Amino acid sequence: MARCKNCLIPDAAPEISLFADGVCNICHEQTGQQELADDDQARKERAEDLEQALKACVGQAEYDCLVPFSGGKDSCYLLYRLKEEYGLKVLAFTVDVNIPPIAWDNIRRTLSKLDIDHLTYSPPRSFYEKLFRYLLKNQEERGAVYTVSYVYAPLFEGEAIKFALEKNIPIVLAGYSPGQPVPERMLYEFSRKLICEADWTPPELSQSGEFSTDELKRFFNPAQYPTGSSFPRYLAPYHAWEYDQDMIMRKVVELDLVASSKHASPLYSNYPINWLLMYSDIKTFGYNPYAPEFSALIRQGKANRNFWRVMMPLVDFMILKRLGPGREVTRSLQWLGLEPGDLRITKARGAYDPVIS
User: Fold this and answer.
1) Where are the alpha helices (DSSP H) in the chain?
2) Does domain 25-347 sit in CATH 3.20.20.70?
């Protein structure tokens, strides 16, 4: 696979072409410095809003904010900053589905170190097995990572909103790094229309006939709440703060929030099923769907190019050969009772997107 010699984006990614000098069209058309300058101006505006929001949330309820806590480096460091630097009373919230042992170790260590209250929600495993199986066999045209992530993520995002409503917490703060989720879904904050007016139940699931009314009710729907309900804001602080992936990986180890650099690595703390999603997309599209995200961070100086120059092809090799962490591909296939041939695109773009009334 050919990659840009500057930002490492593969030439198989959409709308990417490499020039004779080995540099991609994005690097030619917009230098990393210009991209960073544009991003920095928007970031400063978000940072001002975030500072006001963090001040305004204090003392409104038993907890000042709720933080979805996956045990990854970003959510661990987010808890540290909110508790130690801002002095907020934080409720950490974990949906116990497909979280690996390393992430659980990070969760326990960080909570103990910071002395933060923690709420764990453990939904029925059978529903998620059924959901993952259906989505992987019926991917929309953007592939497995997009299809599963943007149905799975709204489930735990919606659960966070539900618990925030139950406890009158005014703000939910998520540890999404820049580039997560896709900009059309969230750029620093979920829109008020999405939170206050949208039914998050994916239309395709409703129309499939495969899921019961009770199962579909697991998705957040503001129409289920009384008129005049005060819905929390849902923000991503790393879209407002200066973000440095390598610094965060170092800091969480230095602060003893995680046990080692391995525990800080997203290669080991991420959801195990994600390896299967990447496997499916590499097979379908010829490149890792996370490559554009990391390449953008490299262009902006927020991720180490030398590290990812080695890791990108190594990760893809492990996925395709099902070695090391890539063995999760086989485990997930067995867990869900699937064969590689079951992983296929059958739905049009947007089939699972929520509907805003």
Assistant:
1) 25-29, 32-56, 73-80, 101-114, 125-137, 144-166, 192-197, 203-208, 213-216, 245-254, 261-264, 266-269, 273-285, 291-299, 305-321, 327-336
2) no
Q: Determine the Cα angle at 354 with ends 349 and 357, to 5°.
A: 125
For the chain, which residues make up each domain, given as ranges? Answer: 25-347
Q: For residue 264, list its beta bridge partners.
A: none
Q: Please state, as a whole number, how many other Cβ atoms lie within 10 Å of the Cβ of residue 111.
A: 19
- Residue 119 tokens read as 């709420």
Would strands 117-121 and 139-140 be described as parallel, antiparallel, or unpaired?
unpaired
Residue 58, CB half-sphere, CA atoms under 13 Å: how many? 10
- Tally DSSP H helices, then E strands, for the chain: 16, 9
Burial pattern 238-267, b for ≥16 Cβ within 10 A else e, equals: bbbeebebeebbebbbeeebbeeeebbbeb
The radius of gyration computed from the CA coordinates of the chain, to the nearest angstrom, equals: 20
Q: For the segment 36-87, what is each residue's pLDDT rounded down to a tens digit?
A: 566 778 889 999 999 999 999 999 999 999 999 999 999 999 999 999 999 9
CA separation, residue 202 to residues 196, 227, 352 (Å): 16, 23, 4
**117-155 residue pLDDT tens:** 999 999 999 999 999 999 999 999 999 999 999 899 999
